[in-house]
Design a protein that fits this description.
The protein is an alpha+beta fold and 148 residues long. Helices cover 29% and strands 36% of the residues.
Length: 148
């Protein structure tokens, strides 16, 4: 499938709300993450995070949060795709678009803490495991990164 995918870096409250709505659907409703843990002080416009909406075939299909770290590094967080849209390459295409977006902004590296079960997806997208397994919220995770 060659999906038509776009990423939108939220610049309005409406775009931010669309991101948060998607995250709520995936993390809180589907996966049972308490809302007070899933949403925090960085979930507003003007924070150290960019909020990115993923549109596929003209509808909202996913979202993620990108935290600006030191030295040209972005940490990918809260990456989600709606259940009925998984396996259709939206996530992979969106990651490629995001990498291009940050490369143009002189970001040199993307990092993330992946759930171990999702690490294969990131490896297929060119990310490397850079830590041993660790537990976060009772779930095995691994640190991964990709130089741009």
């Amino acid at each position: 499938m060659s999906a038509k995918v776009e990423i939108i870096v939220a610049g309005t409250e409406g775009e931010l709300e669309r991101c948060l709505k998607l995250r709520n659907t995936v993390f809180t409703v589907e996966r049972g993450v308490p809302r007070e843990i899933e949403v925090d002080e960085f979930d507003c416009l003007g924070s150290v995070c960019d909020h990115v909406l993923i549109e596929g075939e003209g509808r909202d299909v996913g979202a993620l949060r990108c935290m600006h770290m030191d030295d040209g590094i972005i940490k990918l967080q809260r990456f989600c795709v709606l259940k009925d849209c998984r396996g259709r390459r939206y996530g992979r295409i969106a990651l490629g678009l995001l990498e291009g977006y940050y490369r143009r902004k002189n970001v040199t590296k993307l990092v993330l803490d992946s759930k171990f079960e999702a690490s294969g997806f990131y490896e297929k997208c060119g990310y490397m495991k850079v830590s041993k397994l660790f537990e976060e919220a009772g779930v095995p995770h691994i640190k991964m990164e990709k130089s741009l």
